[in-house]
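TEACHING EXERCISE
Course module: macromolecular assemblies
Task: Read the component lines below, then compare them to the predicted structure of the full complex.
Student: A.B.
Group: 4
Components provided:
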Amino acid sequence: MKATLWGTRGSIPTPGPETARYGGNTSCVHVLGDDGTQLVLDAGTGIRRLGDTFEKPTGRVDLLLSHLHMDHIQGLGFFAPLYDTDAEVHIWGPASTTQNLAERLTRYLAPPLFPVLLRDLPCDLQLHEVPCGSFQIGGFECSADMVCHPGPTVGYRIEEDGRVLCYLSDHEPALGMESFELEDLEPEWVSGQRLARGADLLIHDTQYTPEEYRERTGWGHSSVDHCLTFARLAKVKHLVAFHHDPARNDDALYRVINAAAQKDGLPFRLTVGAEGDVFKL
Amino acid sequence: MSQQAIEVILTRQLAAHLSMPTFLVDADGRVLHYNEAAKRALGDRLEQERDVTARELAALFETRDQKGNPVPAEALPIVVALEERHPAHARLRVVGSQGREVDVAVTAIPLVGQGRRFLGAIAFFWEVPA
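Instructor-supplied answer key:
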């Protein structure tokens, strides 16, 4: 499979020269299977540029939403395949305790926030609620679990021929833990561990510095240190730092993540996720 | 790898921060967690047992009603919450730490997660005057 990052920023788009290296678009990752199966992880603003790369006839595209916070659906209405009568678009995402996925999406894809109603989209649109155990999309074996983040939020594990990609864009596994030191953690009791176990590629929230995390505990995101510990516990092979804080410019982002990584040698490869990065698994 | 549901993980983390004695059991009735306050009130008998179930708590703590009659396992609030899936409350007399009899008020509620998944039950209790 091949994964391409189209949006790496957290919370709000941050276009500008100070974020040009890692990108200012919000969460979006394209995953292409060996058999041509196309997945899109989240519909942040990065999805607009991605949508323009699809050749017609589009065929089937599966969009897997981690949750419905604005930065993860803001680009949805600008995703070109939704307006292609020949496209078959499947949207997977979590319901809430009171509303199904269609009702939740309609809160955004409806006036006054957006001029086009979900029901009026010309593509063949099909909605699926997660988590729902394992599910097959083309050659991908997918699974989703609820993870620690405010509101219904899932992470995804995507497998193809023994290769595993795990996507945990917004995730605060340290919330409420007395200690998040590796030696104190039991995987059974850490959010997201089943999904990330042994992943070849883990795309994970690294929004905060440890100092920022202390001020923003409970906001649903990880510090870089917590993410590195989470990745060690899961024994991943390659970590992609993701969901960058909107207040962090490129130089600061590089400094923060590499400073954390250099405290101890890492048993996995670490990449600071940048728009346009391509990972082949 | 098996992993607890996020709702159960967060409930355990909440319990670990409460000063009210708290028990958490999974959907099969297995005691997953009891917090420091529960250990203080009831002693270390649970630590000496492995894989205790909610039904076994009645015998373990020699549970009685206020008249001194034994309370069967199925009448424990946590067993009611688990098996009948509704909240339950009771005044009980139990043998606490160091063999001391204490009167407690117990409230248990079923845990129902996203997608209406039944995940287990949680019980809180308070020591009350006899």
